Amino acid sequence: NAHYLADYRPYPFVLTATRMTFELHPQATRVVTALSLAPRDPQQAEDLVLDGGKGVKLVSLTIDGVAPDPSRIIRREETLTISAAALPPHPFLLETAVQIDPSANTAFEGLYISNGMFCTQCEAEGFRHITFYPDRPDVMATFHVTIDSDLPVLLSNGNPVGQSQGRAEWHDPWPKPSYLFALVAGDLVAVSDSFTTRSGRRVALNVWVRPGDQDRAGFAMESLVKSMSWDEAVYGREYDLDVFNIVAVDDFNMGAMENKGLNIFNSKLVLASPDTATDTDYDRIEAVIAHEYFHNWTGNRITCRDWFQLCLKEGLTVFRDQQFTSDLRSAAVKRIEDVQALRARQFREDQGPLAHPPRPDRYEEINNFYTATVYEKGAEVIGMLKRLVGDDGYRRALDLYFDRHDGDAATIEDWLQVFQDATGRDLTQFKRWYTDAGTPRLSLAEDWQPGDTGGTLTLTFTQDNPPTPGQTQKSPRVIPVAVGLIGPNGDEIVPTQVLEMTEASQSFSFDGLGARPVVSALRGFSAPVTLSRPLDDATRAFLLAHDTDPFARWEAGRDLALSALTAASRGQAVSGDYVDAIGHLIADGNADPAFRALCLNLPGEEEIATRLSSQGIVPVPDAIHVAREALARRIAETHLDLLSRLYDDMAVPGPYRPDASDAARRSLRHAVLALLTRIDGGERAEILFGIAGNMTERMAALTALLRRGLGQAELAALHDQFAGNRLVMDKWFGIQPMAAPPAQAVQIAHALSQRKDFDWKNPNRFRALIGGLSANHAGFHAADGSGYDFVANWLLRMDPLNPQIAARMSTAFETWTRYDAGRRARALTALERIAAADGLSRNTSEMVSRMIAAG
Ligand code: ARG
Ligand code: ZN
Fold it and tell me: Where's the Peptidase M1 membrane alanine aminopeptidase domain (predicted)?
């Protein structure tokens, strides 16, 4: 049941206009759809195949007003075919009436009900659960939608063209594929504003929420206005409709969705108040509002030819939202955080059985490919392109892209072609970043030759592209390596330059150097590779102190920490370099507090396991946990006075503001708190929780306490105060298994799962608990397999209701092959138990079988 990129062929019919009427009813919604179709080639009669899921019941069908002979209509499990013999060789109108049951839709794909509100999610293939349709992104049509319902607010895409009691009409003039369709109906209220585009179009902006939530929608609205201005200023992109609506929904499978003119959001990415949302939540809201808004051009005006091209819109839109955040906040901090996330999720994916290229060429279930590789690596690849062609070249290429492909369903080939045409650069070899899976391993060897007229430093880079499932042999890639040289006294003697590597092994020389410099390599993380170089801890500490590139500076500290942690987890002695270097950094009042916080947060246990396993060492989860705890304690003990002072100094006076500078101080203060809680018996954290004026402080204090096995009173207090707030209760459910001491994690997760308020059918609640346990490395990987069994049981329970969520959460197992034989056997048993389930969804079955195949 696989789909292959190589099999692409255009749809044999041209669809120009789609008109729909919805008579909304919770159990029996009637959908009438009229499609203006024409055969692509009138000489070549073909069957008309429409997609349509099991829940779509055909009521009637006519062609130009006449019902065809029933024998010409063939209903299969996922399609409806009208045979060529029943179709005219000229344009025709196909009308269908169908009935669907939104109340039975637990998969939250298509039209469903969340808290009494009708809403939709159609990407990637949800529209086929609403009506019979050519549900593929290269079939684009204008939409005219009529909604009949007594609910007060009735929304769809485009502009409102008629509003009367019990009825609303919407017209979307921009041709779009079905995955961008949306409909919302419910008892909603709007927080409203307006934006005037630079060419003078006045756009009405609304953020729709449930009554009572209005006071938590202001930040989302501010973020939208900022996004609209930024896209005009930086990309020259204007909005193109009279209204822009955002709706917050409690039951949503992912973060948010860029439906044309009607973005639908998981409510956790819209609703925020200081009392309920953390700094991280505010950051995410701003970034995701921007991301979905930016899709209006990169995704909607220019969409994808087929789902293999998903990274065309997602990689580019992530890249754009990253640029937006770096412009609005701290570019250095944003880059470091993005690299951390990339390593945690995408490198992990690349190392395991689920590795795939940013543009895959085969899938069974497309929903399984909304991955870190498609999104985040897709963005990294664009960052490399920009580095290679320069800012001007990038700007020219993007202008050409918008100019040439507006209105198209485009491909990665189209995308690369605009760069070739705008800059003259041949991108044949570069394209491997899109087609080859895996993280290249780069190694660096240095040779220093002193000389009379100055010494010469030769850097030899070697790249190795390890095999991934289905791709054993790989050719070298183009790798832009940004380097700088730092003199022995700490001054930069060669500023950043980009070395362009195209061979398997390549040397670059710098001559006329006075004394041997220290190399700062892969500045700004100029390529998504792993870099290994023989560097001693003293040199790393030197870079941490002197590097001018903030990423490389942070990376030096990271490497120091990892070298200490990997040694300790193998029972080896740990040098004091990291502990000393951290002391200098903490004391450096000139450094951005957010940067210092990033350096102070020790690598997570999962990251340590990944590092060990990339060195061919089998990670032992409990040993890693113990080693990390010991190092944290040692830092806290060594720098107790410094840390205590810093904790007091970083207190943020005045009312809570979510801006970057206040958030930076809090992040440093809370990193310090996590360390101090290891020796003060929880005193500071308890005090902070008690007086906390915002959720950021509350969660930081609570997390620090839970990690020490404390915090029961605080947990209870949080529950008492916020039992009525779903988003806060998600945090409450998530933090307990995540921060629990590993030996108790499964038991805690189990107890939570028995509670009445564990509303597991809600995706956020399920993700909180199951994802929380999966994120507790030593807890999930408990040697007795109890973590595996617990998660497997819940995946099996979720799968029949919501396959997308079950499949997504199954990635908890994606690293299973890296552990010892005992854990591997238990993980495999759990995976095989899932695979054997009756009626397992295509989603989960594809994921589990790929993971089993790696064993
Ligand atoms: N296009 C949406 C976004 O990037 C995500 C849609 C995810 N869809 C899915 N089936 N997983 O914001
Ligand atoms: Zn997106």
Answer: 219-433
Active site residues: 292
Has residue 252 got a pLDDT over 90?
yes
And the tokens for 66? 């006449």
Position 395, amino acid: R
At residue 536, what is the residue type?
D
Question: Parallel, antiparallel, or unpaired: how do β-strands 153-156 and 183-186 relate?
Answer: antiparallel
* Alpha-helical segments (H) within 591-741: 593-600, 605-614, 621-638, 640-649, 660-676, 683-691, 695-707, 712-722, 726-739
Q: Which amino acid is at 682?
A: G
- 774 conformational bin, left if phi > 0, alpha if psi -120 to 50, beta if neither: alpha
| Nearest-atom index, ligand 1, CA of 126 | 10
Q: What is the dihedral of CA 385, 388, 391, 396, to 10 degrees?
A: -70
For residue 329, the CA-to-ligand 2 centroid distance in Å is 21
Give residue-wise pLDDT tens across range 700-758.
Answer: 999 999 999 999 999 999 999 999 999 999 999 999 999 999 999 999 999 999 999 99
Unique residue bearing structure tokens 């927080």: 191
Largest CA distance in the chain: 94
For residues 691 and 652, give the distance between their C-alpha atoms in angstroms, rounded to a whole number: 13
Hey, what amino acid is at 260?
Answer: K
Q: How far apart are CA 637 and CA 501, in angstroms?
A: 45
The interaxial angle of helices 577-587 and 537-546, nearest 10 deg, is 10
Six-digit token pair at 185?
């109906």
Tokens of 7: 């099999």
Ligand 2 mean position, distance from CA 282 (Å)? 18
H-only helix segments in 119-247? 218-235
Query: Virtual CA dihedral for 577, 583, 587, 588, nearest 10 degrees?
Result: 30
Ligand 1: which residue has its CA nearest to atom 10? 367
- Whole-number Å distance between alpha carbons of 611 and 35: 55
Q: Measuring CA to CA, which residue among 559, 544, 502 is closest to residue 527?
A: 502
Query: For residues 58 and 98, what is the distance between their CA atoms, to the nearest angstrom?
Result: 5
What angle, rounded to 10 degrees, do the helices at 683-691 and 695-707 form?
A: 150
- The residue whose C-alpha atom lies closest to atom 9 belonging to ligand 1 is 367
Locate the ligand 1 atom nearest the alpha carbon of residue 291 and give its number.
12
Identify which of 767, 693, 700, 688 has the alpha carbon closest to the alpha carbon of residue 727. Answer: 767
Q: Which protein residue has the closest C-alpha to ligand 1 atom 5?
A: 257
First-to-final CA distance of the chain: 22
Q: Whose CA is nearest to atom 3 of ligand 1?
A: 257
Compute the distance from residue 463 Cα to the ligand 2 centre, in Å.
31
- Cα separation, 419 vs 96, in Å, equals 44
Q: What one-character-per-residue DSSP string does 622-637 give?
A: HHHHHHHHHHHHHHHH
Matching residue, tokens 């589990």: 848
Gap from CA of 310 to ligand 2 centroid (Å): 9
Question: Which residues in 491-592 belong to E strands, given as ranges?
Answer: 492-501, 505-513, 518-521, 530-532
Which runs of E-coded beta strand occur in 389-436?
Answer: 409-410
Nearest Cα neighbor of 327 from 425, 261, 234, 454 is 234
Q: What is the dihedral of CA 293, 297, 298, 302, to 10 degrees?
A: 140
**Nearest-angstrom CA–CA distance, 778 and 826:** 15
Report the pLDDT averaged over residues 201-206. 98
Sheet of 57-63: strand order equals 57-63, 92-100, 29-39, 13-23, 141-148, 167-176, 159-164
Predicted structure pTM score: 0.99
In single-letter form, the type of residue at position 768 comes to A
- Taking CB atoms and a 6 Å cutoff, what residues make up the pocket around ligand 1? 123-124, 254-258, 291-292, 314, 367, 370
Q: 564: pLDDT confidence band, cut at 50, 70 and 90?
A: very high
Nearest alpha carbon to residue 213 among 725, 762, 730, 731 = 725
CB of 743 within 8 A of CB of 713? no
pLDDT of amino acid 1:
87
Question: How far, in Å, are 530, 557, 606, 724 from residue 601 at the CA level?
Answer: 21, 10, 14, 33
d(CA 665, CA 36): 58
Task: Name the token pair of 83.
Answer: 């045979």
